[in-house]
Design a protein that fits this description.
about 220 residues; globular
């Protein structure tokens, strides 16, 4: 009986709810895209990679889905994640075009926009699931967020040999389940699930996708 008010409060089917979700997510992503571009110039040395990392960018979609979990349904949360990630790409390259030396070829922005259409809905759903009532889905949502930082840790440490950012991302991998899990069992399962997620995402994203598209 206690779950009934939550279910009734999440219709997510009205046009107004969808419009608000997508507009808010895209605006937030747009501003964060500009900020990440600025941070790349402000952060010293190898730390400037953090601002433009897939892990940090995925947080935007995750947060969009989590914030909307009690206001809209799962499809709207997925679309909000897509708009948040798309806004990041547009904001990042729009600022590069207007305020820096230009974005150059359209190929790279289009590749990252394509990534946004995949990662955005996935992490929007992950954020939505984390705020839900299903323990299994909460574990998967947390493992997805933690795992993307594990992927970054592998890339920074193994490929780029950037030790400080690698350790920072590894710390996030551990802290996300510990701080965001609701029970000890949930925290342990999320951490254990995040490790294979990290390895799988690294192989798929860096070796299969980026190596194929960007060389």
């Amino acid at each position: 009986m206690s779950a009934s008010p939550v279910i009734a409060a999440v219709p997510g089917t009205s046009g107004r709810a969808w419009a608000h979700a997508t507009a808010s997510a895209f605006t937030g992503g747009l501003l964060l895209g500009v900020l990440t571009n600025l941070l790349q110039g402000w952060l010293p040395g190898e730390w400037n990679q953090i601002a433009n990392s897939g892990g940090v960018w995925s947080v935007a979609a995750f947060v969009a889905g989590a914030l909307l979990a009690r206001k809209v349904g799962l499809p709207a949360a997925a679309v909000a994640g897509l708009f948040a990630e798309s806004g990041l790409v547009v904001g990042y390259y729009l600022y590069a075009e207007v305020a820096r030396d230009g974005m150059g070829s359209l190929f790279a922005p289009l590749v990252w926009l394509g990534m946004a259409f995949v990662a955005g809905p996935l992490f929007g759903v992950a954020g939505f699931w984390w705020r839900g009532i299903s323990p299994r889905r909460r574990v998967i949502g947390l493992a997805a967020l933690a795992g993307v930082f594990g992927t970054e840790a592998i890339h920074y440490g193994w490929v780029l040999h950037y030790a400080p950012p690698a350790w920072a991302c590894l710390a996030v991998l551990v802290l996300v389940p510990l701080l965001m899990g609701r029970t000890h069992r949930e925290r342990l399962l999320a951490l254990l699930t995040a490790i294979p997620f990290s390895l799988l995402a690294y192989l798929v994203f860096y070796h299969l996708i980026l190596m194929t598209l960007l060389g």
